[in-house]
Design brief:
Elements (H helix, E strand, L loop, with lengths): L1 E5 L6 H12 L3 E5 L4 E4 L6 E4 L2 E2 L5 E4 L6 H13 L3 E2 L3 H8 L1 H9 L8 E2 L7 H7 L5 E5 L8 E4 L2 H13 L4 E5 L7 E8 L2 E9 L14 E4 L4 H13 L4 E9 L2 E8 L5 H7 L3 H12 L7 H5 L5 E7 L21 E8 L2 E4 L12 E7 H5 L22 H13 L10 H12 L1
Parallel strand pairs: 1-2, 1-6, 6-7
Antiparallel strand pairs: 3-4, 4-5, 8-11, 9-10, 9-11, 12-13, 12-15, 13-14, 15-16, 17-20, 18-19, 18-20
Helix pairs in contact: 1-9, 2-3
């Protein structure tokens, strides 16, 4: 396998370890500076140049794209994709993970734990947003911050509002996020390769610091994750389209909470902590997947006129409930079932004898006109009920105060026209 590692710093620990692991396994590997590429576009011939020379053919690309060169780096990776070269992480998945808001937006539609988060622009929305995420203390994050930079813990409402307004005045986009108190300055870094966690460590903040990043003085310890944490980490990476990822999780009282998903996770901390060959796991995975480059399935399938991809929902009372896929006669209608989603389980390429149940969602390819009548009608979701905050005083005391107030007799005026005077006073007040 001929492998290209895209990195602006060939001497960094992660780049060196990946190169060493590839060489040990007999692969031909080169480290290429991402900024030294030139993208050439021509009809039907996407191409790349490196240091003014035509780039030779590579079997796979392992991108290590720094935050400061995200735009150009993802453009280079996208060009490799158009040339049908296997890329460990796609350009779209790197862009999604690099933007904290975008990644949380994508994760929020799935049944996966994330801290309650708000994003506002208007000054009038800041205080209500802080209240909606649980009130102070609250965490404020820069959308594109890395290594704990731009992460602030505000202990009061006024402080939080002031910080948000200050950052917004400097043209910075910020997130307002619930502070998970029970995490106690700890988080878990799970290193995901493909569909499994190959290593995990717990990071613990020191002193008064709430950020557990190693760069901030945090200490590490190896940890064996239970099934729930492993599944959450793998699902988060898969939802964002990442094959290799570092998933940061908070240990919340309601289970794991996804804090961040990193598309270029460092190897030094986790290899030093766990004593595992993480770099070797990455190279082995690439070698096994090199023949399956990234394909934009929806784009490829919709090239044919009149055909497309749609999701068909099987609601309660549907005529398809209890029928097999063969009995549903979807194939006779020129509709092919690609995957079947049942609760949190995904069944790829389901057999024709698979029985359909209420709540199933079928990802199908076929004629759009035939599928139009089978797609579910959009249902407006009900708003969450507002939880009434309990009064500070005990209820019994409030009742007592109310009874006392009710026992007070308002004396009539000398004219005996209390009602008229009240109306007059009210009118004057208004």
């Amino acid at each position: 396998m001929k492998l290209a590692i895209l990195s602006c710093n060939g001497q960094s620990y992660s780049t060196r370890r990946l190169r060493e692991a590839a060489v040990q396994r007999g692969h031909n590997v080169k480290v290429l500076n991402t900024l030294k590429f030139a993208i050439e576009l021509d009809q039907g011939m996407p191409d790349l140049y490196f240091r003014q020379k035509h780039l030779s053919q590579y079997d796979a690309v392992l991108p290590r794209i720094g935050a400061s060169i995200t735009y150009y780096g993802t453009a280079v990776v996208r060009q490799f994709e158009q040339m049908d070269v296997f890329c460990t992480n796609s350009s779209a998945s790197i862009a999604n993970s690099r933007d904290k808001l975008r990644s949380l937006q994508i994760l929020s539609r799935h049944s996966i734990g994330i801290p309650q988060t708000a994003f506002v622009r208007d000054k009038k929305d800041v205080l209500p947003a802080i209240e909606r995420v649980g009130g102070a203390p609250v965490v404020i994050k820069l959308i594109e911050g890395t290594q704990g930079i731009g992460v602030i813990l505000a202990h009061t409402l006024s402080t939080a509002a002031g910080i948000v307004e200050l950052l917004q005045s400097q043209k910075q986009s910020v997130l307002i996020q619930k502070f998970v108190k029970e995490s106690k300055g700890r988080d878990i870094r799970a290193f995901v390769v493909g569909d499994r966690v190959v290593g995990a460590m717990r990071r613990v903040a020191q002193g008064q610091e709430f950020r557990s990043n190693v760069h901030r003085g945090g200490i590490t310890e190896p940890v064996i994750l239970d099934d729930l944490y492993r599944e959450t980490a793998v699902r988060a990476a898969q939802i964002l389209g990442l094959r290799v990822a570092g998933v940061d999780l908070l240990e919340g009282k309601d289970g794991p909470q996804i804090m961040e998903v990193n598309s270029s996770p460092g190897l030094e901390g986790i290899e030093g902590c766990t004593r595992l060959d993480i770099a070797g796991s990455v190279i082995d995975y690439i070698a096994a997947q090199v023949d399956f480059p990234e394909i934009d399935l929806r784009q490829r399938l919709t090239v044919s006129s009149g055909y497309g991809v749609a999701e068909i929902h099987i609601p309660e009372g549907s005529e398809y409930i209890g029928k097999t896929i063969a009995d549903s006669e979807l194939r006779e209608k020129d509709i092919v079932v690609l995957t079947l989603h049942r609760n949190a389980k995904v069944i790829p390429n389901p057999k024709s004898g698979r029985e359909l149940l209420a709540g199933d969602r079928l990802l199908c390819f076929g004629k759009l006109e035939l599928m139009r009548g089978m797609t579910p009608a959009k249902v407006h979701r009900k708003r969450r009920p507002k939880i009434k905050v309990l009064p500070e005083l005990p209820v019994a005391d409030e009742v007592k105060d109310t009874e006392t107030a009710a026992s007070i007799v308002i004396p009539e005026d000398t004219t005996g026209n209390t009602e008229t005077n009240t109306e007059t006073d009210t009118a004057d007040h208004e």
